[in-house]
Design brief:
The protein has 16 helices and 18 strands. Strands 3, 4, 5, 8, 9, 10, 13, 14, 15 and 16 form a ten-stranded mixed beta sheet that branches. A two-stranded antiparallel sheet has the order 1-2. A hairpin with a 5-residue loop joins strand 9 (182-183) and strand 10 (189-194). By secondary structure, the protein is α+β, with helices and mostly antiparallel strands. The chain has helices spanning 48-61, 78-87, 102-105, 119-125, 155-160, 173-180, 205-215, 243-253, 271-276, 290-296, 333-343, 346-356, 363-369, 389-396, 405-421, 426-440; strands at 7-11, 24-28, 40-44, 68-72, 94-98, 112-113, 138-139, 142-154, 182-183, 189-194, 221-224, 227-230, 280-286, 302-305, 319-326, 359-360, 379-380, 383-384. The chain has two domains: 7-146 and 320-377, 3-Layer(aba) Sandwich (D-Maltodextrin-Binding Protein, domain 2), CATH 3.40.190; 148-318 and 392-440, Periplasmic binding protein-like II (D-Maltodextrin-Binding Protein, domain 2, 3-Layer(aba) Sandwich), CATH 3.40.190.
């Protein structure tokens, strides 16, 4: 084979050293391996200054980054921008993909076959929440960062109610809410304990309800012989009752005025605004939101804790995992794969994640970040130690196969609002959601 031809070889190395259980794509070309590999354009919704700075600094030491550029895209139009650009031949070589985009966008990417990167090798290298990037025929994208859902808590509100810590388990939230919630003489909520029960003014509502379902032992979808099967209204052999029903009932109780836990309604501002204003005790947001919260109210006293758990169940959290996908239409697939591999390597992914307020999606990067980041060493009575909330939350994170995030957003919205408004029973809402998810996957 002529040395001028490009070869993509998967090695049992994913970093500077040959570390067992990690992988890297190594581009072998004639001449210096550090030479420029051509123009590579990356699109994504991750912070522009962070990505541009990382690439610029990397180019000072490694010439392979010399023609790499990052283009920030508005999250609200990202999907349509990407579809139109790829169809018109003006799309990027690489694009950032979150785990809920995998099924919808898998046909747009060059997938790495399992003969090059096996499922076992992938699972040994990346956190479990990244498993959604394993498609039917190969790896859809290389995981880069993981942004865990965490619980922000207002220390002043809790101290004023005689509480030193936020709830660690969901069965403690009811008593917690009674001590925090304040109402006007007319019965209107003026101070909330927790922003659950609605959809439009609850940031991350779909992710929160998904987490509750997974924590209860339920499943939202599953892959069966290449087909995605909706399972919201299905029972689990390991759990009594219907997990999704239990989760949806719990979530919507906080918006029911007839319940003692009543704490939230659609007349309240969005949850993060209420939290930064000091009118919400607990806010469930992503770790990367911390800087925005501090910027919104520099005088707000708050801390971060792991999300509460279902007592007696295996601890579960959720995270948004972002990965680098190589566009099928790229004119420089070899260069794109190489840059994806370099950015997803140990040091680079950790640097990017830290700048974004998240953590690397690589297991070895989490291990090196904290001496406690090894299974049970992080968990005490189902909880994370204060210094490792982000790391152990990512290690606890699980994901589900989302057929299309835009469609499931609408499905979850209808399911929650139907129950909260009283127009639909919980079981009927779950059954209808299953039918809609089945329709979304073409069944």
């Amino acid at each position: 084979m002529k040395t001028s031809m490009f070869q993509i070889i998967l090695l049992a190395v994913f970093g500077a050293c040959a570390v067992a259980g990690t992988l890297i794509f190594a581009l072998l070309v004639s001449g210096n391996a550090g030479s420029a590999i051509g123009k590579v354009v990356i699109w994504g919704t991750l912070d522009e200054s962070t990505m541009t700075s990382v690439i610029r600094n990397a180019a000072e030491d490694d010439q392979r980054y010399s023609q790499v550029s990052y283009v920030y895209k508005d999250p609200d139009t990202y999907s349509s921008d990407l579809v139109n650009a790829l169809a018109g031949g003006t799309g990027p070589d690489l694009f950032i993909m979150s785990q809920d985009m995998v099924m919808r966008d898998a046909t747009k990417v060059y997938q790495v076959p399992f003969t090059a990167l096996s499922k076992t090798q992938f699972q040994n290298t990346f956190v479990q929440a990244a498993s959604a990037f394993m498609g039917e025929n190969g790896i859809v994208a290389l995981p880069l960062t993981a942004d865990p859902l965490v619980m922000y808590w207002n220390t002043d509100l809790l101290s004023g109610a005689g509480l030193s810590q936020p709830p660690a388990y969901w069965d403690e939230v009811s008593a917690f809410a009674k001590r925090i919630v304040k109402r006007s003489d007319a019965g209107d909520v003026t101070r909330s304990a927790i922003a659950f029960g609605e959809y439009d003014n609850v940031n991350n509502a779909k992710d929160i309800l998904s987490m509750l379902i997974l924590q209860a032992g339920g499943t939202i979808t599953a892959r069966n012989s290449g087909t995605i099967v909706p399972l919201l209204s299905s029972r689990s052999a390991d759990v009594q009752g219907l997990p999704a029903e239990k989760a949806l009932m719990f979530y919507t109780e906080f918006a029911d005025p007839s319940q003692q836990e009543y704490s939230w309604n659609r007349g309240r501002p969005d949850a993060r605004t209420a939290f930064t204003s000091g009118d919400l005790a607990l806010y469930f947001g992503y770790a990367s939101e911390e800087e925005q919260i501090r910027h919104a109210n520099p005088n707000l006293n708050f801390l971060i804790a792991p999300v509460p758990q279902e007592r007696g169940m295996t601890p579960v959290s959720v995270a948004r995992v972002y990965a680098l996908a190589t566009a099928r239409t790229s004119s420089n697939v070899t260069g794109a794969l190489t840059i994806a591999t370099l950015l997803a390597a140990h040091d680079m992914s950790a640097m990017i994640a830290d700048s974004l307020g998240a953590v690397s999606a690589r297991r070895d990067a989490l291990q090196s970040t904290s001496t406690a980041a090894s299974g049970n060493g992080l968990i005490g009575d189902g909880l994370c130690s204060d210094s490792d909330v982000r790391i152990c939350s990512v290690l606890l994170a699980r994901s589900w196969i989302d057929p299309d995030p835009d469609k499931t957003n609408a499905i979850f919205r209808a399911m929650i609002q139907g129950v909260t408004s009283g127009s639909v029973r919980v079981q009927d809402a779950l059954g209808r959601a299953d039918q809609q998810i089945a329709h979304a996957v073409g069944q």
